[in-house]
Amino acid sequence: MDFPAPPRDRSHPTDAWSGIPWPEGDELQSDADSAWAVALGLLDDGDTAEHDSSPADPALLLERLEDRAAARHRAAAAEYDLILRVLQSAADDPEPWAGPDPTLDALWHDPRGRTVAAVRRDRLDMAERAAVAEIAVRLRLAEQTVRTRAAQAAVLRERCPQVWTAFADGRVSERHAIETARLAATLPADRATWQAFDTGARDRALRLSPARFATSARVLRERVHAESVETRHQRARADRGVWMTAELDGMATLTAFLPADRAAAAMTHLDRTARHLAIAEGEDRTLAQLRADAFADLLAGAGTASVAAADPPSTADAGTEGAGTAAAPRRTPASGTPSVIITIPALTLLGADNAPATLDGYGPIDLDTARRLAGEATSWIRVLTHPVTGTPLALDRTTYRVPTALRRWLGVTSPTCAFPGCGRSARDCDLDHLRAWSEGGATDDDNLDPECRHHHRMRHETRWAASRDPDTGDLAWTTPLGAHVDADPPPF
């Protein structure tokens, strides 16, 4: 149905019997525009009413704020639900994501010697991975975020239906729901326990702020949990780990998830070391700075001065024209400085330019740190200086295995996994032939891209496909449902 645009030739009559002047032309035009937008579905009646009301009424503003917050919670719950439904559909029908079931062919045999059951199980797994990846690239989310939201929705629907209903109705926030799901997922498989936790969590979520709710819900979990703390602690120990998060201005956060007694012992040791150093003559660092420096020195194996960065590889590579890389000496963790991988443009190293240096796995770092690391290096490795230097960037068809020099070069040009949204470092990735070696693909930089094992398998075992533009050389991906996604630009 067509809706005509609002007329713009309003007159200004006066209602004679009421004595009340007719609204001004601007008011009438605004009403007409609003009515036209509502008729087209571009605006809700509630939105029109809001704009007509006085913004100076705080009670009305608060009511609108509550409505908007509830709508946001409902939208978040709907998003979680849709993510779960897409993954469930992939499990129910993997063909759109992973292609036809090869085991249905009477002449089929698996070249890897897997059983039919194993192939079908792997096919379901790859279909789910493909669906997760498609959701991630469409919503610009991390794949782990997609999996986490689907798992949280599944936990809430099964174990905490009262909290899920309140979330879907907009009465509790996303943070309340996430914390509920996190705690409920660790409960034993007992419906009476689930119900007790669900009832208590819903009552608390409707009354408490997220921070207060988190504390109260943890107490509730302890109260209803049937397993002993000892049993749960032994299971939780399996999740211990250490990870690094890049921060601003050349800094990073190193996080360790440890048993509480060991974490407390480590913190006590750091504090004791920092306080011992604080009394030294001329020491002007704060206790917090001393703890951080002692922490870095102890882990890096330095005797006195803290190390700027540590990384497992034993060599250091560079990757821009005229650039070099310093390799710090290889020593045992207890006796010296671990090696780092740092890319420094040559002119920057000589002080003739201020182009930033790049620390592998982190990004740009300050030039003083880069020059210091270069000065401490005992050897240099040139990755690329000029096309005529002999650095192998393309090889003939007699070589399938990627040589070290070419691997280093690809680690510089493509520092992370080539799949959209994946930030895994190239040094931890497979180098995948874009055009298969068996089909005539060459082992060169134009036909190789780093892909983490997860996305490498997904490209070969699902309907995800990658291609390179012959004119620009840009890499692009096609999703199982036909959407085209450009590869991410280099992170650094």
Notes on the structure:
The protein is globular, with a radius of gyration of 30 Å. The protein has helices at residues 25-40, 45-52, 58-92, 95-98, 116-139, 143-159, 161-168, 174-184, 191-205, 210-224, 229-236, 260-278, 287-300, 346-349, 367-376, 404-413, 453-461, and strands at 241-246, 252-257, 323-324, 326-327, 342-345, 357-359, 363-365, 379-380, 430-433, 448-451, 465-468, 475-478, 484-486. It contains 17 helices and 13 strands. Strand 12 and strand 13 form a beta hairpin. 25% of the residues are buried. The model is unreliable at 1-20, 304-338 and 381-398 (pLDDT under 50). The strands form five sheets. It has a four-stranded antiparallel beta sheet. The chain has a three-stranded antiparallel beta sheet with strand order 11-12-13, with no helix packed on it. The chain is α+β, with helices and mostly antiparallel strands and 492 residues long.
